[in-house]
Amino acid sequence: MTLFAFLIAPTIFIYLGLYTFQNVPVTFALFYGWLLLVPLLNKPKSLKKLMDKRSLLNITVGVGLGVGSIVLIMTGGALLPHELFDSSQIEFLLKDWKFSGEYTGLLVCVLIIVNPFLEELYWRGFILLKLDKVKQKVMISSLFYSLYHFLVLLPMFKASYTAIFFCAVFLAGIVWGRMVVHFRTLWGSILSHSLADIGIMMIYFFYISSKM
């Protein structure tokens, strides 16, 4: 399989799940199934080393960045709730995507536990190793990491902010990528990513779920 296929496949699965099947559980099955199976089937030894190695400094940096992300996300949501998004539009969209009802709690747990682990394993682990000899490997991996987030953001937020959020995701990908390159371990980026996702879920429960 070509490197481009590995880079673009997650975006294709997100598109199929949200726009073709219009179903979040199906999207999760397609997307996370790919993120899990590809690293497992390829089994690069260097990837195992990234999971085995732990660094207290790396974890501290990851937690610090994650807490900072929560503060920024919650501050933005508190100061600009109406400017950032139309809660009624998001409510309709999430119901249409089956992100509501009795399984909402399970889906949220997937987003704050499974999502950061598998995304970091794939993008900052498997993909960075595939791009090891490429000079701009962190930039390239971050760009394709951001690409499918654009598909999620586009129908949910007001158009003027979608590009800003895309850039924020791209920047986060660069920071997490640099962390992995520097510390040679994934655990700090996983923790930081998980905390950032918790911040996003807090926005969901404070400003959207309470009105559904």
TrEMBL record:
Molecular function per GO: metallopeptidase activity
Q: One Pfam family name from the record?
A: Rce1-like
- Name residues in a coiled coil: none
Q: Which UniProt keywords apply?
A: Hydrolase, Membrane, Metalloprotease, Protease, Transmembrane, Transmembrane helix
Q: What is this protein called?
A: CPBP family intramembrane metalloprotease
Note the superkingdom of the native organism: Bacteria
Taxonomic source organism: Paenibacillus alba
Spans traversing the lipid bilayer: 12-35, 56-80, 100-118, 138-157, 163-181, 186-207
Q: Which residues form the CAAX prenyl protease 2/Lysostaphin resistance protein A-like domain?
A: 106-198
